[in-house]
Write a structure and sequence with these properties.
Number of strands: 2
Mean pLDDT: 85
Distance between the termini: 21 Å
GO molecular function: acyltransferase activity, transferring groups other than amino-acyl groups
Protein name: Curcumin synthase 3
Strand order of the largest sheet: 1-2
Helix content: 40-55%
Structural class: alpha+beta
Organism: Curcuma amada
Low-confidence stretches: none
Order of helices and strands: HEHEH
Largest sheet: 2 strands, parallel
Domain Chalcone/stilbene synthase N-terminal: 2-71
Number of helices: 3
Oligomer: single chain
Strand content: 15-25%
Shape: globular
GO biological process, one term: polyketide biosynthetic process
């Protein structure tokens, strides 16, 4: 919520949610739960990767940056 508030734009403008975890595979996934907790629209495209080890954090930051710059 704090980051969205600092961003200063409505939640309806969020198009993607990028989420990764090295543990805890469950369904519905943590990405769905986070989107629900934040009150994001159902139209948000979610990318969730589980069990990809620590290197996935850097890869997900690159993916998030690419999505932010090109959408």
């Amino acid at each position: 919520e704090k980051a969205i508030k600092e961003w200063g734009r409505p939640k309806s403008e969020i198009t993607h949610l990028v989420f990764c975890s090295i543990s805890g595979i469950d369904m519905p996934g943590a990405d769905y739960r986070l989107a629900t907790l934040l009150g994001l629209p159902l139209s948000v495209n979610r990318l969730m990767l589980y069990s990809q080890a620590c290197h996935m954090g850097a890869a997900m930051l690159r993916i998030a940056k690419d999505l932010a710059e090109n959408n």
